Amino acid sequence: MIPVIISGGSGSRLWPVSRQLDPKPFLQLSDGKSLLQNTFSRAMNLPQVKNILTITNESLHFRMQDEYQQINSKNINCDFILEPFGKNTAPAVINACLYAQKHYGNDEIILILPADHLISDSEAFTQAVTQATKIAQDGYIATFGINPEYAETGYGYIEADKSQAIDNGYKIKRFVEKPNQKTAEEYLHSGNYLWNSGMFCGKVSTFLSELEVYSKQLLHDSKECLENSEVDKIKNSKITHLNSNYFKNIENISIDYSLFEKSTQTAVLPCSIGWSDIGSWLSIAQTLPKDNKNNAVIGENILHNATNCLVYSTNRIVAGVDIDNLIIVDTPDALLVADKKTSQNVKHIFEKLKLMEHKTSELHQTAHRPWGTYTVLEEDPCYKIKRIEVKPGALLSLQMHHHRSEHWIVVAGTATVTNGDMVLELNANESIYIPVETKHRLENKTDKNLTLIEVQCGTYLGEDDIVRFEDKYGRTQ
Fold first, then answer.
1. For 173-216, how does the pLDDT look when each residue is reduced to its tens digit (9 = 90+)?
2. Distance from the CA of 306 to the CA of which of 82, 237, 279, 466 falls in 20 to 30 A?
3. Would you tell me how many other CB atoms lie within 10 Å of the CB of residue 85?
């Protein structure tokens, strides 16, 4: 079995922590691990898993590799399919099937796992995967139906046909969109409806034969795209860069609409695994431990006469006085205050920021790069100040800028600097000036982190004013 982690979408209802280029799978909860890392751990700990395939956006590749490397205790091989831009789940699932067919064969079972779910009962999850695998071996696509605990209007539902049992599951009668409150209560009391978790597994041959019947054009376009895409190899890992010219021709549609709602070879496995789709701040609040006044907190805070609140802070203390039923989320460059009852409406703030092209819709002050991170400390139309951290053994591209000069001051570690024709080492409290249109490079040859302050001055300070001549991460044109 090949677990396939699918990571897409911006998580607009979890702004300001979730951003376009820093989406919700990277959200850290109280255990210190991100949702993505928890998903990877669950997949890694399944029996006999040696390879994990991830499908995500090209811009998130190196950040994901870093996240995996931090927790990959079993040295699982990590392959990637990288999309040039976001599309729905059907292209991702189909490309995973075609990839598995090419590299592992038609009898391989793939397990589709969204990267942004929370599952608290790992043992029950592993047992459910084992049961779903048996259903898949019988020629069905097995979906994981979560036994509903209450009348939830934010999830889709699956109606099980309990007159047709398949191993520990049932044939699917129908998929249902998110219901209103009255309908959700009817579903809960009927006993035939399950929450649609978005997780499923099946044999490659089953997926492809059903797609050939119900989504032939979609399958054809995906094959054409994959056949015309480039593949890199990093050690034992294969990195597939989907061809953008072919990828844009693939229909933007969910796997539910394109296949599951049409196929007769689907089954649902009822399970209770402590599952939650982390889709809003309210859903996060429901998963966290509470104090004696039902407040859920992450980060440093002081609360006085506060009840039923969620307080999330990443970098400073938050104080709350005489408040009730609020969501307070504080990040270095944005603050959210919302009513718990309408937490879904945070997405409207996110959409307005996108229309304004506001930077807080895309990135945090700290941006992740293959070589490390940079944090914008202060900026003005004529200057920008950054803190740059370079990982041990990493190096930035050989580059130059048309519109800005740079001044680097090392504050910790040792930097190897290329500045025009010169190559020199700088230690803490030493600095260097990089003139406009001068080729330069920064490298950390040591086994400790390198930290420096960068001061940019010029007429234009955008990140797109970079001409790369050499880059170990493949970012040159």
1. 999 988 999 999 999 999 899 999 999 999 999 999 999 999 99
2. 279
3. 11
Asked whether 115 and 39 are in contact (CB, 8 A), the reply is: yes
Give 414's contacts (C-beta < 8 A, 6+ positions apart).
Answer: 425, 426, 427, 444, 445, 446, 450
- Indicate the pTM of the whole model: 0.87
Strands 301-304 and 318-321: parallel
Q: Which domains does the chain show, CATH number per domain?
A: 2-277 (3.90.550.10), 281-350 (no CATH), 366-470 (2.60.120.10)
The candidate with the shortest Cα–Cα distance to 282, out of 293, 299, 294, 270, is 294
What does the alpha-carbon distance between residue 459 and residue 46 come to, in Å, rounded to a whole number? Answer: 54
Half-sphere exposure of 49 (CA within 13 A, CB side): 29
pLDDT above 90 (res 442) = yes
398 to 315, 376, 417, 433, 450: CA distances (angstroms): 33, 21, 10, 16, 18
285-342, pLDDT tens digit by residue?
888 889 999 999 998 999 999 999 999 998 899 999 999 999 999 999 999 999 998 8
Closest CA to 472 of 426, 439, 438, 441: 441
Residue 88 · residue 258 · CB < 8 Å: no
